[in-house]
Amino acid sequence: MSRPTLHSPERGSARTRLLEAAQDIVRAKGFAATTVDDLCRAADVTKGAFFHHFASKDALGVAAADFWAETTTGFFEAAPYHDPVDPLDRVLAYVAFRKAIIAGDLAEFTCLVGTMAQEVYTSAPDIRDACGRSIFGHAATLEADIADARQERGITDDWTPESLARHMQAVIQGGFVLAKAGDNPELARESMDHLDRYIRHLFHIGG
Amino acid sequence: MSRPTLHSPERGSARTRLLEAAQDIVRAKGFAATTVDDLCRAADVTKGAFFHHFASKDALGVAAADFWAETTTGFFEAAPYHDPVDPLDRVLAYVAFRKAIIAGDLAEFTCLVGTMAQEVYTSAPDIRDACGRSIFGHAATLEADIADARQERGITDDWTPESLARHMQAVIQGGFVLAKAGDNPELARESMDHLDRYIRHLFHIGG
DNA sequence: TGACACATACCGACCATATGGTATGTTTTG
DNA sequence: CAAAACATACCATATGGTCGGTATGTGTCA
Do B177 and A175 touch (CB under 8 A)? Predict the structure, then answer.
């Protein structure tokens, strides 16, 4: 779905480099504060190339959100948290994985689409919707494991797999907000620990 | 601490009107996308007045975060969730209160400092720190009730009142992010329900 | 009491520059 | 060769910020 130009969409094209630059810069400065020139400079591309590939700055925002969805989908599909045979173990392994990849600089592990959605949700509905597709699409990938775990463990409490999957994303996003506000990644990990504990409680598992 | 000018700091001054305008506009458009002219127009104030009261746009950002901390502190102090005699009931009443005030437009109930922190955490450390003070200061107001509830209920599990208080804020902030991304306030309420369930589990309370 | 010094609050025109976007090329590629 | 991919110069405007000026107190002292 990566806007496959007829010719060569191979890695390293100007379009791709711009989208990759957007991931880094927008996560660090936000979308509005990121200028077209910032992106061109980082991607080593001229303005003409930028507007050849994107009709406007907002159009790049949409494309960046879509690109983020693609890359993260691939990243999470290849992650090792799918390995356990027990579905609940897979869910808990997901949380552990999300916690484990919190490392280095804040802009390296926080979420592009969560950041953008906060900023532009009212002024750029197109971007907001693209961010929404990314977040909720990712949440949906957790539903099957949660549903299987529910069935396997005979859980009948009144919460749904869809709802828990979304809540997990909310905790992750909220952890990022606090980590940024406190300038401390540990704050994000802390909330993941609470999320882990919550899920164990939901499935009646001791510490 | 509201910069009490010697003369008349009475409500309705240009400075206050600008800070109130900032609450509305920044929550809707984000800080970077909010222009000084936007604020002056909304506050019915000239640019001269703006830069008389604030040395720069960033300085207004800091003042807006501080102003937010003041107003929300008063708002939550006056809220009814403090009434229950049982400390755990107060904690749960807080969550119920946070859920209850989710109404109307997204920009009306979402958090100014959470939004700003996400945007400027790296480009404007002063604003980020002011946002952090607001968020973590508010979280701290919950710690006493949580600690009392822990003691009263004989809970000795390995989580701290400080940590839970922060996690509660993370869930709230994350709920706002999802509500914006999905353009649906119900998504924020949904996470509050999970938070309520988590706290009940932590204190070994049935549905 | 009145006049003077002084501070604060506010006004509105102006400025330098940054910014998104365009027009018109030139180069590359299938 | 034709179309896509890029480059360069340029434009209109938006934007943060400045600056000189005015109006309204406020304290002080003769």
Answer: no
Task: From the CA of A23 to the C1' of D11: give the distance in Å.
Answer: 30
Cβ neighbours of A121 in B, within 8 Å: 106, 180-181, 183
Other beta carbons within 10 Å of B101: 12
pLDDT of residue B173: 98
Mean pLDDT, chain A, whole residue set = 93
A63-to-A2, A16, A55, A131 alpha-carbon distances in Å: 9, 10, 11, 10
Contacts of B170 in chain A (CB under 8 A): 171, 174-175, 177-178, 187, 191
Q: Is the pLDDT of residue B11 over 70?
A: no
User: What number of other Cβ atoms are within 10 A of residue A141's Cβ?
Assistant: 14
Predicted confidence at residue B14, as pLDDT, reads 85
Note the pLDDT tens digit of each residue in A105-133. Answer: 999 999 999 999 999 999 999 999 999 99
In 3D space, the residue among B3, B46, B1, B38 whose CA is nearest the CA of residue B21 turns out to be B38
Distance, CA of A195 to CA of B118 (rounded, Å): 21
Among the partner residues A170, A187, A193, nearest to B177 by beta-carbon distance: A170
Chain A environment of B157 (Cβ under 8 Å)? 207
Residues A46-83 pLDDT 10s: 999 999 999 999 999 999 999 999 999 999 999 999 99
Residue at minimal CA–C1' distance from C11?
A: B48
Instruction: Note the pLDDT tens digit of each residue in B79-102.
Output: 999 999 999 999 999 999 999 999
Nearest nt by C1' to A45 Cα: D6
- State how far the Cα of B62 lies from the Cα of B80, in Å rounded to an integer: 29
What's residue B13's pLDDT?
85
Q: Which of A115, A173, A193 sits opposite B178 (nearest CB)?
A: A173
How far apart are alpha carbons B102 and A96 in whole angstroms?
Answer: 31
Q: Kindly provide the b/e burial profile for residues A105-119, where b requires at least 16 CB atoms within 10 angstroms of the residue's own CB.
A: ebbebbbbbbbbbbb
Is residue B151's pLDDT more than 60?
Answer: yes
